[in-house]
Amino acid sequence: MSTAAAYAVSTPDGRFEKVAIERRELGPHDVLIDIKYAGICHSDIHTARNEWHGTSYPCVPGHEIAGLVAAVGSAVTKHRVGDRVGVGCLVDSCGQCDPCLASEQQYCQRGTVWTYNSRVPEEQQAGGYTLGGYATQVVVTEGFVLSIPEGIGLDVAAPLLCAGITLFSPLRHWNAGPGKKVAIIGMGGLGHVGVKIAAAMGAEVTVLSHSLSKQADGARFGAHHYYATSERQTFKDLRGKFDLIVNTVSADLPIDHYLKLLDLDGTLVILGLPDKPMEVKASTLAGYRRSLSGSMIGGIAQTQEMLNFCAEHGIGAEIEVISADRIDEAYDRVVASDVRYRFVIDTATM
Length: 350
Hints:
17 strands, 11 helices, 2 domains, Quinone Oxidoreductase, Chain A, domain 1, alpha/beta
């Protein structure tokens, strides 16, 4: 075992404290990464505060990891010491089921191993569960380590390992591109990256936000249109307009109203996870052969494709870099929607 500095929370209502954690010894196929930046995702907050239940403590969140390779195992072939690399939401899977063989490891039928708060053998991690990227180092199997191209700074690349792939995956799967009208619901930590990616893919992009407060930013990110959903006229003016709508917010929205904004054969994809069940009229779906679907991150191959795409098009997250002692403050600000658009921890401050 090796030791790394980290920031952990010990109770659902506790504050983050600096701790020393153990990382497993380097195996033949393992990569040791010096973490330089770790993004803060709302999922981190839900887990740290046990809002999804089942959190193991002490909890070290973080699945938006960017850094440099510090050492490699004897059988590693994909990465070398000094390489710019990243780790997202996944650190292992069975590798044998149909989704894994199709590089859709996030849907592993035998159980994906997530970057934090995921059960693993005791010999792999003290406590028997994974500890995430709010740390100075991490050890990850080489097949789950991504290459970060030179065209992206490590700081702005970190959030792409979750926010970026969460948007890229449905946009690619439902063929966003030239001739397609795409709407992004919400322009926060997820949505702003989706606007950039959809625009770079060549789609006609519309932002559907509660207000027009971020309209100038939307135009800067590549949005062609921007509408306030707090205005009733929006749902009248945009009825039947879109081929694809991607919902990035977790609020309990009137989804049936948004479905009516789809054109023939259009699809609305749910990324956010609202507390209450959604109410949808069968006639809304049947009338225009509309579809309601969902998506979550992407597999390793697609995540690498996303990073390459973002580097080619100069896409990174809009970030505010913070020191590790400001994690609690950052959490409160995320919950209050007081960030444009993603917090990233500078691990040199650990």
